[in-house]
Amino acid sequence: MSIALDNAIFVSDKAKGKVKKLMEEAGVGDDPSYFLRVGVVGGGCSGLSYKLDFDNETKPMDQSFEDNGLKIVTDLKSFLYLVNTELDFSDGLNGKGFYFKNPNASRSCGCGESFAV
Question: Which of 3, 65, 88, 102 is least enclosed, having the fewest CB within 10 Å?
Answer without folding.
Answer: 3
